[in-house]
Amino acid sequence: MAGREGDLVYHDWSLIQQTRPAGAGEAVIAGVAEYPSYSIVIPAYNESARIPATLEQVVACVRQRGWAAEIIVVNDGSTDTTAELVRAFARSAPEVRLVENPGNRGKGYSVRSGMLQALGEVVMFTDADLSSPIEEADRLFAGIAAGADIAIGSRWLESSRQTHRQPLYRQFFGRCFNAVTRGVMGLHFADTQCGFKAFTRAAAQTVFQLQTIERWGFDPEILFIGLKRGFRIVEVPVSWGHDARTRMSYLRDGAQMLQEIASIRWNSLRGRYGRQVQAK
């Protein structure tokens, strides 16, 4: 069975058998017998240099901790070999599956796509560079287990946990953007932008069906929606190290993100975030 929201397609994967090539002409059929406890969503755009190592680390962590988990890589219209590498990796790692976007749509779109297609009771997303080590997911899951609906990683609650700090100019622009989200949107969190967040299934299905921002500015929107819909959000300090290869530019993308904040306020005034959503 499948449903459609815009141009995203959601499947009832419990009714689907996944076929993947094995070797020497044979095929392995992996039936999805039950829903996993955890889903880990990784948005990826032109990540061929990093994605194999990232998947190795995530799969190793999942297996070491004995998590019943799936790992969803959302390919955002990459022009390199990202998709091919993920497919090849999945042949020996049944935890991994690939979701393809219809072209390059942005990180927000990719996260939304993966989160809405996830099967887990707890659903999280992490950046492909693993700036926060995947082992730190334990902290997010603990926040959910303690009663939160949404647990967000923070680089600033305990800044001593940062293993590699951002350049000063990025810290400055980040703090300025955070001040704007506090003043304009009432988001009183130390860090809205850390790409390391976990949701209960109910919270994820509600928040991401209502999300409208498709590029970098989606983090404040999903937190704004979460608060507006009455979900309990906790901020959790996590270890984090800056990756100089990050594609986000505060100078280039900052103006767009400010426009998106205005769009979020406008959506709220129009009642966009109060509409009924479909339980899945």
Topology overview:
Elements: E1 2-5, E2 8-11, E3 17-23, E4 26-31, E5 38-44, H1 51-65, E6 69-75, H2 82-90, E7 96-100, H3 107-117, E8 122-126, H4 137-145, E9 150-154, E10 162-164, H5 168-185, E11 196-200, H6 201-210, H7 218-228, E12 233-237, E13 240-241, H8 250-269
Parallel strand pairs: 5-6, 5-8, 6-7, 9-12, 10-13
Antiparallel strand pairs: 1-2, 3-4, 8-11, 9-11
Helix pairs in contact: 3-6, 5-8, 6-7
Task: Give an overview in words.
The chain is α/β, with parallel strands linked by helices. It has one domain (34-271): Spore Coat Polysaccharide Biosynthesis Protein SpsA, Chain A. Helices cover 37% and strands 23% of the residues. The protein contains eight helices and 13 strands. The chain has helices spanning 51-65, 82-90, 107-117, 137-145, 168-185, 201-210, 218-228, 250-269, and strands at 2-5, 8-11, 17-23, 26-31, 38-44, 69-75, 96-100, 122-126, 150-154, 162-164, 196-200, 233-237, 240-241. The strands form four sheets. It has a seven-stranded mixed sheet, sandwiched between helices. Strands 1-2 form a two-stranded antiparallel ribbon. Strands 3-4 form a two-stranded antiparallel sheet. Strand 3 (17-23) and strand 4 form a beta hairpin. It starts with a strand and ends in an 11-residue tail after the last helix.
